[in-house]
Write a structure and sequence with these properties.
Two copies of one chain form a homodimer. Helix content of chain A is about 15%, strand content about 40%. Chain A has about 200 residues and is an alpha+beta fold. In chain A, strands 1, 2, 3, 4, 5, 6, 9 and 10 form an eight-stranded antiparallel β-sheet that branches. A two-stranded antiparallel sheet of chain A has the order 7-8.
Chain lengths: ~200, ~200
Amino acid sequence: MREKIQSVDLAKCYLLLNHGPVTLVTTAFRGRRNVMAASWVMPLDFDPPKVAAVISGDSYTRELIEASGEFALNVPFRRIADKVFAAGNASGRDGDKFVPAGLTTFPAERIGAPLVYDCAAWLECKVIPEAHNQQRYDLFIAEVAAAWADPAVFSQGRWHFPDGARRTFHYQAGGVFFQTGRMLEPFHRAHMNPPEKD
Amino acid sequence: MREKIQSVDLAKCYLLLNHGPVTLVTTAFRGRRNVMAASWVMPLDFDPPKVAAVISGDSYTRELIEASGEFALNVPFRRIADKVFAAGNASGRDGDKFVPAGLTTFPAERIGAPLVYDCAAWLECKVIPEAHNQQRYDLFIAEVAAAWADPAVFSQGRWHFPDGARRTFHYQAGGVFFQTGRMLEPFHRAHMNPPEKD
């Protein structure tokens, strides 16, 4: 898999989350691993890049993040929306969720958490311990140690979705998502396509 | 305007931000007011509802939020993407941005910051002071005091965009946005439309 994806410049990796896609949070610690769907995730800083994510206090993912100090944010393709929904509706405490959800993985480079196939982008994150935020708000702040994207959909700092299946998507609630839709370029339109004079 | 919008149950107001749309952050303090575009915004808790937002340290918006302890998150319709871009590319210190950007406003109910017309939803927010987060990460945590939505696009806890103009949208970078696209219902599809047997 590694040879099919491209490293993303860390100073540009906020672009992978800027548009608010749903993510899969993957974790691992001493032979245990887990995956959960998360929408309450955002960039927090450019360089060094940081992210903020809400990880609920009673989740198995939370336990593995606090034990390992690491997690990955995977930005899934909409063609695996069913699997994302499945991963979001079971607990890893009841057994490994990857296989029943149909999610396969490959190794990360800088952290122990696995990365999920059929995603558009990946951010390998190391937690910056902030006990007050974690305990009071379930809020985790992390620095991005490595970032990757599928060059079919993201390259040179820009998303360029080639088809409907390989798009990111966004969570509403209750099993309903929205795919990332049509590109709007108000600035470019205004500046690059001025009204023609006759 | 007030009669055209509906109050959103506070326990459900996270749904207004769950899918990661771009927002306009509005602020006011003692006769001064400002508006900025922001994508680094997310829900933080359900009930009482909280949000997290990154407000850069040198911005006029930051100054007004720290002075007033309040801000509103406006979720704009994609038909005003040009205005959102304009608001995101000027500083309020150089003069009122609303009028040049073509943004008109109406009063909020619980806070002093104005709300922007031509939006899908609004969240009136009161800052929970967290000096460490604000100073170290430009991160503001706030409780939502009131929430509103245009019933043409959001009602009974669900988005239902009627057309292309009245959709939310998401920011990439460099003046490029993506509109909120087609609805995907993997859970509903799987359960409500099983393959027909012949």
